């Protein structure tokens, strides 16, 4: 693909900004996975599977623009790894803050906070972005959302 330098810089900038945004988005996912696993290992496994599956397109969204801008697969992979590294950091933060357990009220508050963060990210960022990129074929977005919900229900059923 032939691009001028300005287009390459813009594409690389988009990839780096996507990596940073996804990294920020991944912090509460790490917290949610740790807290879920602390409560019940089945919940932790289900969250990890669901989050892992949705990280595949996130990785592509980060790596592809950087690769096309620079021609370097390693740079794309590096930025992908940086954004993905935020999840274990979120889990580590939760572990440091919580340790091996907490009282039920604190647990409820933390689950509520993480839930609010995740719902806000979905409603304000992920769903509108998906509809924007669907270019008139929004039924595919709806199908994808229901497929994701089905995967989570299935994983909760299988591991629960």
UniProtKB/TrEMBL annotation:
Keywords of the record: Membrane, Transmembrane, Transmembrane helix
Name one cellular component (GO) term: membrane
Molecular function via GO: zinc ion transmembrane transporter activity
- Primary location group: membrane
Topology in the lipid bilayer is annotated as: Multi-pass membrane protein
The regions listed as transmembrane in this protein's record are: 76-97, 109-127, 139-159
Can you say where in the cell this protein is located? Answer: Membrane
- Name one matching Pfam family: Zip
Source organism superkingdom = Eukaryota
* PANTHER family attached to this UniProt entry: ZINC-REGULATED TRANSPORTER 3 (PTHR11040:SF210), ZINC/IRON TRANSPORTER (PTHR11040)
Question: What is the official name of this protein in its record?
Answer: Zinc/iron permease
Q: Report the source organism.
A: Phytophthora fragariae
Q: What is the lineage of its organism?
A: Eukaryota, Sar, Stramenopiles, Oomycota, Peronosporomycetes
């Amino acid at each position: 693909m032939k691009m001028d330098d300005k287009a390459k810089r813009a594409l690389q900038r988009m990839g780096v900004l996507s990596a940073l945004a996804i990294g920020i988005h991944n912090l509460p996912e790490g917290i949610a996975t740790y807290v879920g696993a602390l409560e019940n290992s089945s919940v932790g496994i289900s969250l990890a599977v669901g989050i892992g599956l949705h990280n595949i397109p996130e990785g592509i969204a980060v790596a592809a623009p950087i690769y096309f801008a620079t021609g370097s697969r390693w740079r794309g992979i590096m930025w992908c790894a940086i954004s993905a590294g935020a999840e274990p950091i979120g889990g580590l933060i939760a572990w440091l803050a919580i340790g091996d357990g907490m009282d039920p009220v604190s647990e409820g508050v933390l689950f509520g906070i993480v839930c609010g963060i995740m719902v806000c990210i979905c409603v304000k960022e992920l769903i509108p972005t998906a509809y924007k990129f669907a270019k008139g074929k929004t039924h595919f977005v709806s199908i994808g959302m229901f497929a994701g919900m089905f995967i989570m229900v299935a994983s909760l059923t299988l591991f629960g």
